[in-house]
């Protein structure tokens, strides 16, 4: 039985992770974390009255007292790095869907996980379809170097561009011929109109109520275009990837960046 803790359990993603862990026959929910909980036990919530799972506000205490094998973290970008570092330092596997990591932070956490020999995963997106979209885009970019990314999310998302968009751009850069797109003398009459610039690619972020998580990768060439799109209509779309990560990180001894690396 895999002992699992959920950090950020009151958020929409965290709540879905709790329900997923409870459904999996080889997993046991041992603790949950919230930054300012009003409850001491999850059974104080109407949906979980039959459970006996302690609620913590301190991650270190949760790790020491409930000794989870894996901690799934869906919190906020401001705490993602420190949470992941604390989890790995305590010998637990970190399964992180929170975005906002810098390249340097990824390198530091990877080195720490190798030192501790603890498997972990940071994934900008846990939907298998989104991972396939990124892989298809990476392949297409070798033939269509003119590309722009449009990511669309709910209006409560804190960071922009999304981690998925950044990861997609990083993957595309592995195969894309580096060119400057558009006219050399292009100007913006309103600053930011052309979006963020990633090695000549443009990334555009949309934030609207009613959306969950969506992304288009648009390629253009002489006389043709190619659009690769993925849509998550419900947060359940991410849960098969989360469950897979909880299991697969037990088979590795370092941090992995991107769900595609364990599929």
Automatic annotation (TrEMBL):
InterPro entries assigned: DapB_C, DapB_N, DapB_N_CS, DHDPR_bac, NAD(P)-bd_dom_sf
Active site residues per record: 153, 157
Keyword Repeat: no
Keywords linked to the UniProt accession: Amino-acid biosynthesis, Cytoplasm, Diaminopimelate biosynthesis, Lysine biosynthesis, NAD, NADP, Oxidoreductase
Similarity comment text for this entry: Belongs to the DapB family.
Summary of the function given for this chain in its UniProt record: Catalyzes the conversion of 4-hydroxy-tetrahydrodipicolinate (HTPA) to tetrahydrodipicolinate.
Record note on quaternary structure: Homotetramer.
Protein's name in the database: 4-hydroxy-tetrahydrodipicolinate reductase
């Amino acid at each position: 039985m895999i002992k699992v803790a959920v950090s950020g359990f009151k958020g929409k993603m965290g709540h879905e992770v709790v329900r997923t862990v409870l459904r999996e026959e080889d997993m046991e929910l041992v603790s949950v974390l919230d930054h300012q909980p009003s409850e001491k036990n999850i059974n104080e919530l109407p949906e979980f009255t039959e459970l006996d799972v302690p609620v913590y506000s301190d991650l270190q205490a949760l790790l020491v007292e409930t000794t989870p094998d894996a901690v799934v973290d869906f919190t906020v970008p401001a705490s993602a790095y420190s949470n992941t570092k604390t989890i790995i330092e305590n010998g637990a596997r970190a399964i992180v869907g929170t975005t906002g990591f810098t390249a340097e932070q990824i390198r530091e956490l990877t080195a720490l996980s190798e030192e501790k020999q603890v498997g972990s995963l940071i994934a900008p997106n846990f939907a298998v379809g989104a991972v396939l979209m990124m892989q298809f885009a990476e392949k297409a970019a070798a033939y269509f170097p003119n590309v722009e990314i449009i990511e669309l999310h709910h209006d409560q998302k804190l960071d922009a561009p999304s981690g998925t968009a950044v990861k997609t751009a990083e993957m595309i850069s592995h195969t894309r011929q580096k060119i400057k797109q558009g006219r050399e003398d292009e100007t913006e009459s309103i600053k930011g109109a052309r979006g963020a610039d990633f090695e000549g690619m443009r990334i555009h972020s949309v934030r609207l109520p009613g959306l969950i998580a969506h992304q288009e990768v648009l390629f253009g060439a002489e006389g043709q275009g190619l659009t690769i799109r993925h849509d998550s209509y419900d947060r359940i779309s991410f849960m098969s990837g989360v469950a897979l990560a909880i299991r697969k990180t037990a088979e590795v001894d370092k941090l992995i960046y991107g769900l595609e690396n364990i599929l």
